[in-house]
């Protein structure tokens, strides 16, 4: 009985692994807009900002916890950010001031 119980525990541990690993989220930019207005993720997750427009974007955040600037990047390119701190991150585009979204990073 104990062996069976341990086997079940081991299986449960294996099954739960993917939820512990960091996840990758994709946010497209199309028509001078982010594909999502808000995104909820966990600390350690990656967000890939994919430019689906035919012109450049420059995604950045001035949020104190983790400011970043991905620089200007053109059509079809992807830039990835790992969110290593919890908080609410306002994401903007330096080229298109109307582009804004919020990423909520849970601890
Ligand atoms: Cu832009």
Mind explaining what this structure looks like?
The structure is a single chain. By secondary structure, the protein is α/β, with parallel strands linked by helices. It has one helix at residues 2-20; strands at residues 24-29, 38-42, 46-51, 57-61, 68-73, 78-82, 87-93, 100-106. The chain has a single domain, classed as Immunoglobulin-like, CATH 2.60.40. The chain is built from one helix and eight strands. The protein has a five-stranded mixed beta sheet, with no helix packed on it. A three-stranded mixed beta sheet has the order 1-3-6, with no helix packed on it. The structure holds copper (II) ion.
Radius of gyration: 18 Å
Count every beta strand, where a strand is a DSSP E run of 2 or more residues: 8
Structural class: alpha/beta
Text of the CATH class: Mainly Beta
Question: Strand fraction band?
Answer: 35-45%
What string, H for helix and E for strand, traces the elements in order?
A: HEEEEEEEE
- Count up the domains: 1
Q: CATH superfamily membership, which one?
A: Cupredoxins -  blue copper proteins
The largest β sheet comes out as: 5 strands, mixed
CATH architecture heading:
Sandwich
Q: Identify the overall geometry.
A: globular
Helix content: 10-25%
Topology:
Layout: H1 2-20, E1 24-29, E2 38-42, E3 46-51, E4 57-61, E5 68-73, E6 78-82, E7 87-93, E8 100-106
Parallel strand pairs: 1-3, 2-8
Antiparallel strand pairs: 3-6, 4-5, 4-7, 7-8
């Amino acid at each position: 009985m104990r062996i069976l119980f341990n086997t079940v525990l081991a299986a449960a541990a294996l099954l739960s692994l993917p939820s512990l690993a960091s996840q990758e989220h994709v946010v497209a930019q199309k028509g001078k807009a982010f594909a999502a207005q808000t995104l909820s993720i966990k600390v350690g997750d990656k967000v890939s900002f994919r430019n689906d427009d035919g012109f450049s974007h420059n995604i950045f955040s001035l949020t104190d916890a983790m400011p970043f600037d991905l620089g200007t990047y053109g059509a079809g390119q992807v830039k990835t950010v790992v969110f290593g701190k919890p908080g609410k991150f306002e994401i903007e585009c330096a080229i298109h001031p109307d582009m804004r979204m919020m990423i909520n990073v849970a601890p």
